[in-house]
Amino acid sequence: MTATRPSAMLGIALMLAACGQGDGKPRAPVQPAGGSARCAAIAAEDYVTRTELAPGQRRDDARLVLRFVQFSDDHILDDDGQAINGASILDPLHPSFEAAQRLQEEYTDEVLNDMIIQVNECHRQYPAEFMIVTGDSADLTTVAETRRFIDNLDGRFDQMSAFETACVAALGAGASAEQIALQCTRFTGRGVADTQTPDPDPSDPSFQLILSRSLRQLLATEQAALAGRAADGSTDPARQTATRSPGLPEVLRCNAGPGCANVALQMPWYVAFGNHDGYLRGTVALVLGVNELSQLTGRHYMFDAHEFIDEFFFTQPIPGPVGHGFNFADMARRLDDDRRNDGHYATDAAGGSVRLIVLNTIIDGVDPRIPLDVLRNPFALSDGSIDRAQFDWLKNELAMSWARGQLALVFSHHPDLTFAEYGMFSSLVPIEVTAAELDAELASWPHLIAWIAGHTHQHRIRAFKVETGIGRNGTVEVPVQCKREGACSGFWQIETASLIDHPQEQRLIEIFDNGDGTGTIRASVLQHRFERAKALAAADDRCALYLSDPAAVAAAISEAGLAGLCLQGGIRPGTPGDRNVELMFRMPDR
């Protein structure tokens, strides 16, 4: 069953707009503590000052303009769903298909919750105004995974969902409780704790070769799902999650309060679309028949962008906002018949001195060259892009924020080098706006200081520098026509690692005005303390032998050990210049 947009959501949206909560107008910000944050969650590493865009360093008396938290690629994962109908036969072949059967995938909920605990403690000492998730909240694009993500941040469990509300309405007033449970509730994870698979052994060579790892984990998770295995090893078929989606694990099945392990985030939070939020596994555009087949397994995939958006209107009003950013989409767009154009929005921060512009960069596979929506472009994969209408909206947002004297920040899931033109099937995907065109537009505005993204699961920071009318970042090179001649030096491109993969880190970002014509973006790496998952994630990152690497396969046959063959380690954490950094920029001269 495909959920329709609930009328309740429209009523909420209208009510919020009437109350001034969804219009993007300035509101009183959190008053941040002066000086830079030094909380325990920040990685204990030296800060690197980078001066590619402006000389100098952060002054001791610099004024703090804004402090916020970035989460990205949290990938709340129904690992039982991986075993049943989410795992791909492509996973063992090439790193490009990596999405399933990680050693640490059992603990995505616990890792997110522990990160929330660390962020809350930092927020208590050094108040942040908001947190923003730059995509991939879920992994398999199921409604239950998205509900677990929302529950985790809300410090609640088994909250009602947009999906179930619409589903029950479609069944009609005469539907029985059994019918509602079978056709609606079992797809949401409500009322059912996640079953737990025994931890894999990273020292076992069969968990190092992706092919054998996939087979072993598929069997183990399927067995746990069928048997209703709990964290203590006990089993009960009544707890099975093979034919219904699981909710939060048992340890988090309590509402935030004294003695509850499920802790609510203590600041407003916003969400951006990621490819794993928009179509099956984030890499497959197949639509036809998937949810019909998944009636057997109790998984519902959200192929309609508004199914994802609607869920964020079923949340706690505090800290809010209800809608978690999607409520800021223009009212005309929210109420029109186009269900694909509400994923981008903008709002103000820092008392109106900073404009936050959030893009929707996913390619959902809907292709004007294919007549029916039930069939989508199979080459969409995980690449990014924006269409011309969203690009025009972005240009207008940049122009208005410049006129208002604001600084501007752009957020999206995909950074520029993961846009479609850099993908393996670029010629087969409709591209309306290239990454180079987007870079040039952003660089043409002196007040746009950073583009903040995720997707790559690594820490990486690049300067998009403008000199003599040309913008460059080492790969992209494009002419830039500055909106104010001589005032454009470029902007910072900040990518943040994921919570699903090693090093399982996020960021705290602070913006300072040095009072001398320069500013500083201080980006700090945040670390969780759920050690059980950390060890598995580190092992998973060190050793992943893919069949597409003939040299590694040949070496595996001829050598006794696999340790020297593992090729992925050392990439995702980034260099010191990608981690704890202070990024200098020129304050716009108006």
From TrEMBL:
It comes from the Bacteria. This is Calcineurin-like phosphoesterase.
